[in-house]
Each structure stands twice: as structure tokens, then as C-alpha cells.
Design brief:
mainly beta, 18-stranded mixed β-sheet, 8% helix, 8-stranded mixed β-sheet, 442 residues
Length: 442
């Protein structure tokens, strides 16, 4: 007789436990998704960023814009992307403008690369939405050469501009103003004309550079306790910018001896007369020098500032350095180059002074023009000019710096005392904007 073994009964599934497990797992997944959604929404709404509009404007010569894909020579205007390397050759100058595309292309900063300079754009962005309180970010790396920075007033959110130089030290800017950064010859120097700036040797060593000050640091200071050199910046003609406080009409103003005030007037052979007026151009406070109405005779719109007292001028022999700086834009001119005699440039600088060898006063001229008629030959300097006039691109801001006049002038022509500094537009028709003129001494 065969014995039959009992078969094992299948294990019953506890459906209640399974149901609770599914519910708990679903709830955990829901919580995880909710957390990720909240974090993602918070990031998207308050922390996500979008790029700014960056454009290069070449004011003289040719600049290069290099990416991972190619390198482009630029002579006019061109959009620039993040991670691009921008460079100027020894004869060129170019500016990068950063605009806020969500606020009618409001200008946020203008970065001017002087000759022989370069930088890489590492970051340029703004918060995606206006309700975010985060700042505009503009960051550059591999900065070398001489860089001018202009940040306009009236931005609706904070701005952080950072420059990391090839020599090690960095610069951080957080306020509207005008600055010059120089990185070369084993030294980094920052000039703060107006604004707030920080010169940083490392995370633990930095120096606040107040407005009206210049600071420098040796590149090798990164390995030891850095030594910052801080000195006042002296501008003999006062404020570098123009306002109702330092620009007066020479004809209508009865007080002609105000210190550090520009006295402006128009001179012309025949009507129409030119004009000068304070304005804002490309977010820059500026003075406009203008003459039109089909003028076909010689005219000048000029601003002058006297220096010193009496007839001896201002003695500058004790200064190690004397230099002239001007930022301007030539919009239009009717004469080719600087006219038949080379003396009618749409923008001219003039300094009257007594040289170190004594004798009568002499005048130094330097002219700029933007338009050339290729069918007509015009001289590139005037009879009284010791330097050739410079051609720049029209409708683009250009910054001129003379460097140290005590080094570039012939020894017998070095200034001993300066009587005045002038800037003016001349010719027939012209339109020029000037945003700063300075006579800097060290």
C-alpha cells in the first residue's frame, strides 16, 4: 500500500501588508518628487540665470575674438559669447558692452581693452526673473594689459565685476564708477577714479581701493604677505566727468577765474554757430560739441580750463609723471581727415605750457578724426603739431592716454609749468561727445 504525503499549502500573501507597503512607497516617491519640484522651482524662479548681451565694438584697428571653434578678426561690431577670448594688437583698441536684454538693452558695463590687451569672458549673466534679488555677474579670466571699466549709475540690482589676471592678483568691482586696471611688468595696478573696488592678492589678503586712489601689488606677492602700495590720484583739472558744476558758458558767465571749471564757447567765421550742451550718451554723462545747418565755413566749439594763478601757470616740475586722458566719440564730420591744413580735426586736445628750457610758451596739439575721403589727400598733422593725428572708428567711444609726457617729450620740451588745457571740435559740420578729460600727475 502506497503512503501519500501531504502536499504543502501555498503561502498566503498578506494583502494588507502589501497594500500598506505600496502606499508608503508611493508616499515616499511623492515626497521625493515634491522636494525635487520645490527645489527645482525655487532654483528656476530665484536662482536660475540667463546670459547678457555682449558685443565688441572696435574703436581703432583690429581686434580678435577666439573660441574653441575659430578665431575671428573684427574691425567693427560683433556679438561675443561666453568663453570667448578677446584681444587687441599693439595698435588697436576695442570695447565690450554688456546689456540687459530684459530691460530694453540697458547698459551694465563697458570694458575697454587698450592696445596689447586680452581677456577671457568666463561669466556674464543676470537672474532669469526680476523678482530675484541676485546680482548681475560679469567675470573675466586671463586678464592681461590695460583695461578701462565704466559702470553707469542707476542700475536696479547689484553688479559684481571680477577680473582674474594672468599674474595672480584679482580685482572686484561692486559699484558704478570709472576704473583702470593694468596687469603687466610683474605688477597689477588699479586706479579708481570714482566707485568702489577691491584689489585681491589671495583669499586672505585684499585691499580696498577708495575713489580717487590708485593701488598696486607685485605679482610675486602671492607667495608671501603681500605689500599693497596705495597713493592718491591727482587730477589737476578736477572731476574727470562733466556736469553743471564744472562746465560754464564763457560768454554769459561773469566769473572767469573759477578753479577747475571748464569755460566753453563757440567761434566761427560765418554763421551758423556751433553749440555745446551737457547730455547723457550711452549712459555716460558727456558734453556734446555740435555744428550743422550746412555750415561751409570754419568753426570751433571749445572748452578751456586755466591752471595756476597769474601769468606763470601751474608748476609741474616736482611731479614724476604728467599725462593727459580723454574719452570721446566722433559721430560725424563734414571735412575729410582734419581739413586742408590739418588743423580742423573734429576732436583736438591742446596744452599750452612753458618748457623746462624756459623761453616763450609753446602749444602741444593732438588731433583725432574718423572720416577720410579717399579721393583727396589731406595732411595728417598741422603746422604747429608735433604728432600725427589719429584715425579712429566713427560712433565708437575711444579713450586716449598720452602716457607720461616727461618721458615721451623731447628733453627740452618737457613741461615746466602748464597754463591751460583745452579740448575742442573744429571744421565745418561736426558732432562729438566727450565723457571725460583729465590731466593726471603722480
Amino acid at each position: 500500500m502506497t503512503e501519500t504525503l501531504p502536499t504543502s499549502m501555498p503561502r498566503r500573501v498578506n494583502t494588507q501588508q502589501v497594500a500598506w507597503g505600496v502606499i508608503l512607497l508611493s508616499f515616499a516617491i511623492f515626497c521625493a518628487i515634491l522636494i525635487f519640484v520645490i527645489i527645482g522651482a525655487n532654483y528656476f524662479v530665484f536662482q536660475s540665470r540667463v546670459p547678457l548681451d555682449a558685443t565688441i565694438h572696435v574703436s581703432r584697428g583690429t581686434a580678435t575674438v577666439a573660441t574653441d571653434v575659430n578665431e575671428t578678426a573684427v574691425k567693427g561690431d560683433k556679438s561675443v559669447d561666453r568663453n570667448s577670448v578677446v584681444a587687441t594688437d599693439p595698435q588697436s583698441q576695442a570695447s565690450l558692452t554688456f546689456l540687459d536684454p530684459q530691460h530694453k538693452d540697458r547698459l551694465l558695463a563697458t570694458i575697454t581693452l587698450k592696445n596689447g590687451s586680452s581677456l577671457s569672458i568666463n561669466e556674464d549673466s543676470r537672474p532669469r526673473f526680476d523678482w530675484s534679488q541676485d546680482a548681475y555677474w560679469i567675470e573675466f579670466e586671463e586678464v592681461y594689459g590695460a583695461i578701462d571699466i565704466f559702470v553707469p549709475d542707476g542700475l536696479d540690482r547689484p553688479l559684481l565685476v571680477t577680473f582674474k589676471t594672468t599674474l595672480g592678483p584679482s580685482v572686484r568691482l561692486t559699484a558704478a564708477g570709472r576704473y583702470t586696471l593694468s596687469a603687466g611688468d610683474a605688477q597689477v595696478q588699479l586706479i579708481n577714479y570714482t566707485g568702489e573696488a577691491l584689489l585681491m592678492a589671495s583669499d586672505l589678503h585684499n585691499r580696498l581701493v577708495p575713489a580717487g586712489q590708485t593701488a598696486s601689488i607685485q605679482a610675486n606677492a602671492e607667495t608671501t604677505a603681500p605689500q599693497f602700495d596705495l597713493a592718491p590720484l591727482t587730477n589737476l583739472v578736477g572731476d574727470t566727468a562733466f556736469s553743471a558744476n564744472n562746465v560754464v558758458d564763457f560768454i554769459s558767465n561773469t566769473d572767469q577765474v573759477q578753479p577747475q571749471v571748464w569755460r566753453c564757447l563757440n567761434l566761427q567765421d560765418t554763421e551758423p554757430a556751433g553749440s555745446f550742451n551737457l547730455t547723457t550718451e550711452d549712459s555716460r554723462p558727456a558734453i556734446r560739441l555740435y555744428r550743422d545747418d550746412g555750415a561751409e565755413s570754419h568753426g570751433v566749439t571749445r572748452c578751456l580750463q586755466g591752471l595756476g594763478t597769474g601769468t606763470e601757470g601751474l608748476d609741474v616740475s616736482s611731479y614724476k609723471s604728467v599725462s593727459i586722458r580723454a574719452t570721446f566719440k566722433i559721430v560725424s564730420q563734414s571735412l575729410s581727415t582734419c581739413g586742408n591744413d590739418g588743423s580742423e580735426c573734429p576732436f583736438m586736445l591742446q596744452m599750452d605750457y612753458v618748457p623746462v628750457n624756459g623761453g616763450d610758451s609753446v602749444s602741444w596739439f593732438h588731433g583725432f578724426y574718423a572720416f577720410v575721403d579717399p579721393t583727396r589727400f589731406m595732411p595728417l598733422n598741422c603746422a604747429s603739431c608735433n604728432e600725427q593725428h589719429e584715425q579712429i572708428n566713427p560712433n565708437v567711444w575711444y579713450t586716449y592716454e598720452s602716457h607720461n609726457l616727461k618721458e615721451i617729450f623731447a628733453p627740452e620740451r618737457v613741461p615746466q609749468a602748464i597754463f591751460n588745457l583745452r579740448f575742442y571740435a573744429s571744421g565745418h559740420e561736426y558732432e562729438v561727445y566727450v565723457s571725460e578729460v583729465a590731466l593726471l600727475v603722480d
